[in-house]
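FAQ
Q: What does a multi-component entry look like?
A: The components come first, one per line:
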Amino acid sequence: MATTLNIETLAKEDALEIFTQMLLIRRFEEEAERLYRRGLVRGFLHTYIGEEAIAVGAIPNLREDDYVIGHYRDHGHALARGVDPKAAMAELCGKATGCSGGKGGSMHLFDAEKHFMGGHAIVGGQLPLAIGIALGVKLKELDSVVMCFFGDGAVNEGEFHEAMNMASLWKLPVVFMLENNLYGMGTDVNRSRAGGASIYGAAEPYMIPAVQIDGMDVMAVRETVSEGIAKVREGTGPVFIEAMAYRFHGHSMADPSNYRDNEEVQENRSRDPIDKFREDCLEAGKIEATDLELAAEKVDLVVQEAREFAEQSPEPAPEELYTHIYADPEEN
Amino acid sequence: MAEMLLRDAMSKALREALDEDERCFLMGEDIGAYGGAYAVTRGFLEKYGEERVRDTPISESVFVGAGVGSAMIGMRPIVEVMTINFTLVAMDQIINHAAKLSYMSNGQLTVPLIIRTVTGGGGQLAATHSQSFENWYASVPGLRVVVPATPYDALGMFRASRKDNNPIIFAEHALLYRVRGEVPEEYYEVPLGKARIAKPGTDVTLVAYSGMVRVAEEAAAKLEEDNISSEVIDLRCLSPLDLDTVIESVKKTNRVAVVEETWKTGGFSGTIASDIQEAAFDDLDGPVIRINGPDVPAPYARNIEQLMIPSADWVVESVKYNFGL
Ligand SMILES: Cc1ncc(C[n+]2csc(CCOP(=O)(O)OP(=O)(O)O)c2C)c(N)n1
Ligand SMILES: [Mg+2]
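Then the predicted structure of the entire assembly, as tokens:
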């Protein structure tokens, strides 16, 4: 695993920003779970709790003209990309003001303006799309990169292998971000993958440079990903980053969680990425405890506003059922 | 007016796309160095180069998905899937992604993608290589399905498809590439969703599309010998579907047979038949007749393969028997 970047080199405002973003994702999802229990959020709700360091370590390294695409566990990716928490929460609640107009739900957040190209809920399905966005970038002779998130389960889909081959063959600007949280729903990665829990070797036959990092260490993610992006931007082809992680809660709210024992969960929770970063910052004298408290208060306010906005927003009008099935003919 | 093979009309359509729109590029298996499995893109690689005429690995899912992804950011990809049988391994990208992105993103994204593919049987290629799945795709909201039967329509509807902003299945029948037809020099377009009266008539309406239009026309000529006047309607597109033209004709003839190459169970003819009886029940002198291939996988041997593809004689007999003409 790559070594942790020295926290000393971090500017204070960057440290605060990292902390704030991770905490925002955490608190946003805790609120979403409450809303789910209250029946305001329905369908599938997959939380990212425990994995926040990956999105927050990775996505802010991108430029505005870069692209982010990923799977249905997408709240963290969306928020780290700057999608408005209000619009995201309204989407979870199926409201017209949601970032997908209430038509996508938790699994399908979109914000084209922010180049957030979607949460995608067919396992592996976003990988070919990422290839296409990268191909478009290349044909337009731009130097944007495409960051594509997927889970350890997606690696066993054919689309993953097709995408890896084409990205390498055509030297496409893709950062493959594997979030290995050791489970695909209830199936332990050791029971789904020949070769076991460590996956980054899968990139080798495709000649894609690959590295494995501790995805619970936001500084490690930040350092490795920023190097990866720089390499991809040179135009030499994709890179592959495997971030080892653990999801603290169930696969979705429907998960009875009887496939892993409590000890394992507790052991991993003791490595909480937000706690770790907080402690490291305090220890290094990077931020004062009062700064962190202030940041946490701000986060709570943002989440509260998002919830209120979502609750008060109108549902989609009935005629919305029939809009945007096809594109408007004018825009060409 | 110049005569042209449907294959050449398609080549012309693709050259126009590449010449006129720098956002357009072609992508698919063996479209470049090989010249296209059906020779539609012969000479393209030399003329337009590897960037715009992209030979892909045999990975339908990722190259169709790459078409979708590039369309999401404003390119106008034209993807060729060698035959419609092979679109099955890219169905996830076509149905779960291409067809859904506009709706799920509430119009933030569009997918102006044309998927050209080759459909139909009759070439003794047996069960895996002789199928027609246009009807399946036509049942998916968010997709358009274009099924030209003539060189004129192939070029005209391709031009219209390029101006559309939606994912389109553009299915060219394998046995029609060598069909010759008139194609004007002057620019024209054939709008999507407008059926064509291939032959006017008064006694019975024959509805068909793609390869079956010629069969229906042949049947109409034979029926004419017995003084039975048929109106042949070429649907041209399954989505959007021009039901109005069909209903208007039925109101005049009061009898209708739908001719379709694919299996009867789940065939598009079922949808048409049902739509007709809902819209014009009182105008019908009898049940809507569906003439489809039987529910069997396509065999290789010529004699039994021919038994599963509706023919002109089959249509003639069925019309005479069912309508007592
Ligand atoms: C093609 C497909 N098969 C099955 C499912 C059902 N499913 C949803 S999530 C999931 C597990 C995926 O695990 P992983 O890729 O590791 O991502 P994680 O949920 O752990 O983030 C499964 C099987 C699906 N959505 N799509
Ligand atoms: Mg997983």
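Q: Is there any commentary attached?
A: Sometimes. For this entry: Chain A has one domain: 7-309.
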